[in-house]
Write a structure and sequence with these properties.
Helix content: 55-70%
Shape: elongated
Strand content: 15-25%
Number of strands: 4
Strand order of the largest sheet: 1-2-3-4
């Protein structure tokens, strides 16, 4: 698993924000799979990322210091060091969203076909059940 896969969604998106805002102040390739640099947050944080062993990545921010987590500063440094990774990530998100939208449309079409296959009496019964269920749900919150 890579840095992006190990990071929380929040860390990835906040890291993307930091990358877009150019908060990475320095970056240096220190090995075949490692980078060191600084990222501006509430202060200047020192970041080390290891792409081969992401859990060895470190940051001096309060969230990551002393923990084996991937923070937004690590993601920002990674995207700055390898902008193609940021592009690839966004392309994956677009593809996923497109697939989700297509799946949603297929689901709605199945619902439409199901509803049109019902008789008037079946529709009336289902509608009554939905109304009763909605009433019960509403009454639970009062």
């Amino acid at each position: 698993m890579g840095l992006i896969e190990l990071a929380s969604g929040n860390s990835v998106w906040r890291g993307m924000d930091y990358y877009n805002a150019k908060k990475t102040k320095s970056v240096e390739k220190t090995g075949p799979y490692t980078y060191d640099g600084t990222v501006r947050g509430e202060q200047l944080y020192h970041v080390h990322i290891d792409k081969e062993h992401p859990r060895r990545s470190t940051c001096t921010c309060p969230f990551a210091e002393g923990r084996r987590v991937i923070c937004k500063h690590m993601i920002a440094l990674y995207f700055t060091a390898e902008p193609k990774a940021a592009e690839d990530f966004l392309k994956q998100v677009e593809e996923w969203e497109k697939e989700e939208e297509e799946e949603e449309q297929r689901h709605y079409e199945e619902l439409r076909e199901y509803v049109y296959s019902l008789s008037k009496a079946e529709l009336q019964q289902l509608y009554l059940e939905v109304l009763i269920e909605e009433e019960e749900r509403r009454n639970r919150y009062w």
